Amino acid sequence: MEKIRIFDTTLRDGEQSPGASMNLDEKIRFARQLERLNVDVIEAGFPSSSPGDFESVKRISQEVRGPQIAGLSRTTPGDIDRAWEALKHARKPLLHVFIATSDIHLQYKLRKSREEVLEEAGRAVAYAKRFTEQVEFSAEDATRSDPDYLARVVEAAIDAGATIVNIPDTVGYTTPTEYAKLIAGLRQRVQNIHKAILSIHCHNDLGMAVANSLTAVENGARQVECTINGIGERAGNASLEEIVMALKTRRDFFSFEVGVVTEQIYPTSRLLSSITGILVPPNKAIVGANAFAHEAGIHQDGVLKEKLTYEIMRPESVGISQSTLVMGKHSGRHAFRERIKALGYELSEVHLNQAFQRFKEVADKKKQVFDEDLEAIIADEILRIPDLYKLVNLNVVSGTVTVPAATVQIEIAGKLYQEAGFGDGPVDAAYKTIARITKTKSHLLKFSVNAITGGTDAQGEVMVILEEGGIRVTGQGAHTDIIMAAAKAYINGLNKLEYQKRLKGV
Predict the structure, then answer these.
(1) At CA 214, angle to CA 210 and CA 218, rounded to 5?
(2) In the 8-state DSSP scheme, what is residue 409?
(3) 380: which residues sit within 8 A by CB, 6+ positions away?
(4) Which of 35, 62, 461, 494 is buried deepest, with most CB atoms within 10 A?
């Protein structure tokens, strides 16, 4: 099988996405992750655009030794000199020069004739060739260029020494049918096309970047320029993970190989999100939170019987540990039974039906039902947990000039205990005092407050998640006094925790 080169431009075109700029350390960190991902080319930046970009290209060239490192440049000698100065330390440098070829760009942006641009393209490639053997030429806005003129420019660039020629859909304007015709036409028109790798670079303005890229591959392109999570100018670029997994998953159709270590896709996606703060939409293909999640009962039943029914690729193949059965109002009895078993409960058919009915009631009120909710349902509806701890009295003092303090009375196995303590706030003081009385070793993982009703006299509901020794439970409490609600939730959680510990012999 022929190999498709994956040219990652997250650090150049991707960083041009609003809000996606990175500092030097972040760029180097991300470049090293791209090296682990094993992309063929990392376009590290546009050296002449800023001192920061120059330094990042230089440092990545010095420190990342696996992939080929590319730097973007306009066709002026000064730009090319600057790009080479940053790239010269790379083990495998690639000078990437570009100029627009559409009449729109020539008339309004460059203010040059076709002949002037044709001459400048060849001259720039020849100049870049003085520094390195590997030179890529891009015809900006190629898909809105006259095909015959575009062919002349590409031929001139290859004659001047370009080893890669890139045909970008710069503004995401083309369609798969048009792009296929353009790529196939260039292979027929350009006499020396066999001397260069044909590359493509698609934007997603009309949502067709990945489709256009794959169509181009079918018609002779052998390098795809793309970004992690599809970030980039305006609506973004073709998504690397979607292209790679399409080629991998549908190898029977495309018959091409890629060198990407697909198990590093999800970690790379997460790293980019953490650096830029740009979150991945839940329904994003391959790396979205819902990409391997199933809620519909029919789907869950099928996946439990055979994953191939609704999963065309294994989540582990992209670095996700496993697929997820999301428990919600669409979930069926089969998925509910399996999830209950996974939590360690063996229920009779009568109890299972009782718990399932309660689950459906909860699911109608919540978008997603978590494991802690399921355990609460079982505890409250089936197991009827006895209360080891009972809150008898709570008194809290707090204010702007007062150290928050709490006095708590708790009944434990019929005996009354009382303690007082301080904290950073009234809830903290109450929780520390309760913890001292109960001698709990649990950790508070989550604390949330919601108003059940409206108005200043609203009843507040507090939910806590406690964990001890691998056992995790949810505690809930409601009261018009939010401090009291918090204490009730904590006590409720401690009772559930003690019960689970006894069940498991802890």
Answers:
(1) 165
(2) E
(3) none
(4) 494
